[in-house]
């Protein structure tokens, strides 16, 4: 199948706009909270869960993951399961989530959106990533560390199971973006000042 630049541009534009939808901000706002002013000031599911409530945080995680799934899935369906257009949609969805057009280019760290797209595109890596996240989180109670380990696991899993090289490279790039977005968390982890997610 030949590469269609029109579809590629559409996948990129739609991916960015879908990724930019600020569900964390909107859900928190609906509960009377400005998520950019409380906790870590991040509109991701973890901060929403801490500052608004468990139900709100879970809703945000689900909606952010659905963003990634839709942005990745629709161009693949349109173009007969072509992974290239799906990858474009995924990358731009994560960028949109991290640098939202609607939030003055502020945004979350991209974990849920990335995971949603990975489910659509490379589900074995997504499954391993979720298992890694659960293992790290329940042994440490650090959401940030679990998310970083999830991101790192994706390209490693793709390499081990022999996925196409393009999937490994893109998952590596997205993983690095997620790690960079957690740079402040990494500093706090090294200093021993990172907040653990308390057991309820």
Give structural notes:
It is an enzyme of class 2 (transferase). The chain has 200 residues and is mainly α. The protein has one domain. Helix content is 73%, strand content 0%. The chain has helices at 5-20, 23-30, 45-51, 54-78, 83-98, 111-121, 123-140, 143-161, 165-181, 183-191. Helix 5 (83-98) runs parallel beside helix 9 (165-181) and helix 8 runs antiparallel to helix 9 (165-181). The protein is globular. The chain starts with a helix and ends in a 9-residue tail after the last helix. The model has no long low-confidence stretch (mean pLDDT 93).
Present the secondary structure layout.
Blueprint: H1 5-20, H2 23-30, H3 45-51, H4 54-78, H5 83-98, H6 111-121, H7 123-140, H8 143-161, H9 165-181, H10 183-191
Short descriptors:
single chain; 200 residues; mainly alpha; 10 helices; globular; cell membrane; acyl-phosphate glycerol-3-phosphate acyltransferase activity
């Amino acid at each position: 199948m030949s590469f269609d630049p029109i579809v590629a541009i559409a996948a990129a534009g739609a991916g960015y706009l879908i990724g930019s939808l600020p569900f964390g901000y909107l859900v928190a706002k609906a509960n009377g909270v400005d998520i950019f002013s409380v906790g870590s000031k991040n509109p991701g599911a973890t901060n929403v869960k801490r500052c608004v409530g468990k139900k709100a945080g879970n809703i945000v995680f689900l909606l952010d993951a659905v963003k990634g799934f839709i942005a990745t899935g629709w161009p693949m369906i349109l173009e007969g399961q072509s992974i290239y257009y799906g990858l474009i949609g995924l990358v731009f969805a994560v960028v949109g989530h991290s640098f939202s057009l609607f939030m003055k280019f502020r945004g979350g760290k991209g974990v849920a959106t990335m995971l949603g797209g990975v489910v659509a595109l490379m589900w074995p890596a997504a499954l391993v990533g979720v298992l890694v996240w659960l293992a790290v989180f329940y042994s440490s109670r650090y959401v940030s560390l679990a998310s970083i380990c999830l991101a790192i696991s994706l390209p490693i899993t793709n390499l081990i199971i022999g996925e196409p090289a393009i999937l490994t490279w893109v998952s590596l790039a997205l993983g690095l973006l997620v790690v960079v977005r957690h740079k402040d968390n990494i500093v706090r982890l090294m200093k021993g000042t990172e907040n653990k997610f308390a057991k309820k």
